[in-house]
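chain below, 86 aa
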Amino acid sequence: MDAPKLQFPCDYPIKVMIRVGPGVRPEVDAVMNRHAGPLPLDRISERPSREGHFAGITYTITARDEAQIAAIFADLKSVPGVLMVL
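prediction:
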C-alpha cells in the first residue's frame, strides 16, 4: 500500500539535529528563511542535549510542494555542523 500523499499547502515539521557551535544555528535559520520565509517564534522549537553539545531544532513550515521540502533538506545537509535532517 502506498503512503498517503501530502495535500499542499500544509504544515510540515522539519527536524534538524546540530552540533552546537559558533554560527551553526544562524546558518540553519538562514537556510530556513531563504526557503520558507521568516518563521514566527511559535513555529520553531529547540531542545538542547543533556551536555549541551548538540541540539534538536524543529521548524514547522507551511510547505508549498515536495520540491520546496527537497530543496530545504539538501541545503540543510550542506551546512557544517548539521548532523541529521528529518
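The first strand starts at residue 10 and ends at 19. Helices lie at 24-36, 66-77.
thats it, cya
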